[in-house]
Amino acid sequence: MSIPRPLEEEVYDMSGARLALTLCVTKAREGSEADLDALERMFRQLGFESTMKKDPTAQQFQEELDKFQQAMDARTDLISCGFVVLMAHGLEGYLKGEDEQMVKLDDLFEVLNNKNCQALRAKPKVFIVQACRGEQRDPGEIVGGDEIRMIVEESPQTIPTYTDALHVYSTVEGYISYRHDKNGSCFIQTLVEVFTERKGPILELLTEVTRRMAEAELIQEGKARKVNPEIDSTLRKRLYLQ
């Protein structure tokens, strides 16, 4: 008996152009260059057209996202995926530009949603955020339902504004994100390692990233710390980057 293949509509079409944008503040963020090198290697292996900008101001974070969106909408070829990496110091919901000013993450996410970016309408939009979300530190803990289904009538002519997006944060709300001053950040290095070594749907790969980070023990100020990423997904289909 043959195993049925997944239905075509359940998998994102990745046959078109893949575009990536990385905005990274390196000022007072030792180890950032190691992350940039790892990301460049990953995007090259995964077939992305990659653009990187170092040390953007808060305003330039917004301007570069706007330029990224406008360039995609101006293209005549098929675009399959937009992949954005944002790396900076931060607080919950905000990133700090090179000029010490803050930019709101939601404003950056809005640029590529289904309303504002026609080229990525119903296409996957991946955001990777390497930044602190607060000052809390996690020492770790010793390890010692019914499904609710709602059926809605299909409406193929319309799509919700905020679907097909994947936001991956390097840490959970309120907590610090760790970065080694030479080897780069635990999150970016682990993500690149998994994305380049393994194949599978991106959410499965991110589960592996979470598992590896959860098993790792980081030492800060002489104390053991734990950290794990947080994944926020409105993807409607399986997304394969390979």
Automatic annotation (TrEMBL):
What GO terms describe the biological role, i.e. biological process, of this protein?
cell differentiation; positive regulation of neuron apoptotic process; proteolysis
Instruction: Give the UniProt subcellular location, in the record's own words.
Output: Cytoplasm; Nucleus
Q: Which SUPFAM superfamilies match?
A: Caspase-like
Sequence ranges assigned to domain Caspase family p10 in this UniProt record: 155-242
GO MF, any single term: cysteine-type endopeptidase activity
Q: Could you give one GO CC term from the UniProt record?
A: cytosol
Name recorded for this polypeptide:
Caspase-14
Task: Say which species the protein is native to.
Answer: Chrysochloris asiatica (Cape golden mole)
Per the record, the gene is CASP14
